[in-house]
User: Fold this.
Amino acid sequence: MKQTVKSKGAGPQEKMRVSFDLDEVLFVSPKTHKTEPPLKFPFNKIYKERLRLGTPDLIKSLQRMGYEVWVYTSSFRSERYIKGLFRMYGVRFDGIVNGTRHLKEVQRNNKTTLPQKLPNRYRISLHIDDEEVICSLGHQYGFKAYQLYADDDEWKEKIIRRAEEIRKMTESA
Assistant:
């Protein structure tokens, strides 16, 4: 079922999608980043990754603002594992693309090797990643990306600001 939102002067359109990479974006090391509190036993033995401080709040805020929030990762963690971990923090994603899904649906049997992420293939309006190479491919392949740097206390505000800029550009187009 497609969700729609009304924009000024136009008919209904799909909700804008924002996606996040996992490693070094949402999953970070407590040695180098501020993190959410660890999960309680026994869940901390099942889900060893630690979330960047503010991750659940940011995702829920974006969803309250009318965005669909996705994961787009080149890792091969299962969708079930990703959903389960984030559910422990009260977060539900609107969509998940992992390495397996990307290979099956995007790369398929293309003879040319495509980038490990192509957010526009899933109608994702903004992709957040730490890798410069992924972000720089946006211009060539037609998607918008925001590069998240390792240590940035204002990361949530910057992502919301960038998403809002893109939404305004889309609505006025």
User: Anything to note?
Assistant: Residues 155-172 form the longest helix (18 residues). The chain has a mean pLDDT of 90. The beta strands are 4-6, 12-14, 17-20, 27-28, 50-51, 68-72, 95-97, 126-129, 145-147. The two ends are 25 Å apart (CA to CA).
